[in-house]
Amino acid sequence: MKITNNPNVQKILGAYQKKSEGVGKASKFKQEKDKVEISEQARALQVALNAYKKLPDIRKDKVNEISKQIKSGNYHPSAEEIAECILDRKI
User: Fold this and answer.
1) Which pLDDT belongs to residue 42?
2) For 15-71, what is each residue's pLDDT tens digit?
3) Cα–Cα distance, 75 to 73 (Å, whole number)
4) What does the alpha-carbon distance between residue 76 and residue 70 come to, in Å, rounded to a whole number?
5) For residues 16 and 42, what is the distance between their CA atoms, to the nearest angstrom?
6) Which residues, at least 6 apart from 66, have a Cβ–Cβ distance to it below 8 Å?
7) CA distance 36 to 17
8) Contact call for residues 59 and 67 (beta carbons, < 8 A)
9) What pLDDT is recorded for position 27?
10) How far apart are CA 89 and CA 77, in angstroms?
11) Are the CB atoms for 3 and 9 separated by under 8 Å?
12) pTM, full prediction
């Protein structure tokens, strides 16, 4: 049995072709492009973070001052200061 000459099959194929022609027309719609907006607070945070990264790990002026105090015998931290540093894991 041949189905190519059947009028019902031809109607179905014709309807399918009409639907498939409309698929390409969707590209006429203009899509918005993605965009990113950074808030002022985020910009300020970035500036602060960059300034923090530029700071030295060791404050040489403070180290030199305490070193001089230790050498001269004038450095006497209190027990509270020592305990606070231990708890803050500074030592």
Assistant:
1) 94
2) 777 665 555 555 567 788 888 899 999 999 999 999 999 988 888 888 999 899 999
3) 6
4) 8
5) 53
6) 75
7) 41
8) no
9) 58
10) 16
11) yes
12) 0.35
